[in-house]
């Protein structure tokens, strides 16, 4: 099936459902889901969030275990680490592993070995969706346990990470954006000193399981390592980032996720006996700051801001479409972002009959095979689709849904996909792809005999 094909009736829908459930079951690891059994053998932060959305349709108890296991590794300052390491795995099972991060030497770190970075705060949104799609007394109790931790996560980002002072959180590493080697980071990363020879001291795990042409380069990794080493050696402190840290960027997706989290917390708060008002106020403040600091009226899209130079980055990436997930995004910005999504840079037709690429497909350095420099990713398309629905563009959202399901129908639950041919790239049997397929399919009654299936609430 081509990338633009819709899912077939009956048997094909059932096949996709069963494939997705089997993938999640195969990746379950005692209290969490690994993104994949090959490339990513530990627990990743935003992966677990997206995975919980799918689990809510088939294994609701696992959805809450997924989120609670992640938040048990929350740091004292509120940060939720982007990796929680499985102590059962041998040293060298993944690079960079726990011995490189050395979280046990940092103040406020949990007992579990973790990284010291974060990822986009999509967790409150996905907790709300998991509850809405499988409400129960147990789910409400899980929300009550998670709520103060979700609030602490937001507080950390709003205080420790507002380096620019404009009401937005900054990311201190490309890994924190989730879009590791996006062209959006080329400019900020060029200022990071790195020696490719340093990589000879390490053994990359990813290129043993996926072609090097699909992954970040050794130069990228050398810079990634250099940034982490400096942050680690400073105890992962955020008090003087503006003075000493080489990579400081305000990211549209990251901050849109923070705003969506506040909207979700405003819905969760009454269920757990808390006041939704402060969450609504903070959500409005984040949206206002996003428009003021990251919207470029000349090009009609949102762009990351490099705090080292004070300038918006020039690359037009899928990051610029992410603010659509904010229900209070002003109408002029909604219209401009929808136009960008339907343009030749990201769409190929007004019906969204192909999934969005991660980078401007008309750019001379567009790479349809390499990680975040062109391929299509299910999670970003899922977020943009939610934004289209929130702003009354069900026509485009339906086209995007069909194209996303077409990817998996043709290639399976891969990590990412060629944006034109639909070929599966990266890791097979990938967790969030499977989970979000279930969410896309669950608007219809579950196929007969499908494990745990239910329509969306």
Automatic annotation (TrEMBL):
Protein name as annotated: Mannosylglycerate hydrolase MGH1-like glycoside hydrolase domain-containing protein
A Pfam family annotated for this UniProt entry: MGH1-like_GH
Keyword hit for Hydrolase: yes
Boundaries of every Mannosylglycerate hydrolase MGH1-like glycoside hydrolase domain copy: 40-433
Family from the record: Belongs to the glycosyl hydrolase 63 family.
Organism: Micromonospora globbae
Annotated InterPro entries: 6-hairpin_glycosidase_sf (IPR008928), 6hp_glycosidase-like_sf (IPR012341), Glycoside_hydrolase_63 (IPR004888), MGH1-like_GH (IPR054491)
Entry keyword set: Glycosidase, Hydrolase
Superkingdom per UniProt: Bacteria
Lineage: Bacteria, Bacillati, Actinomycetota, Actinomycetes, Micromonosporales
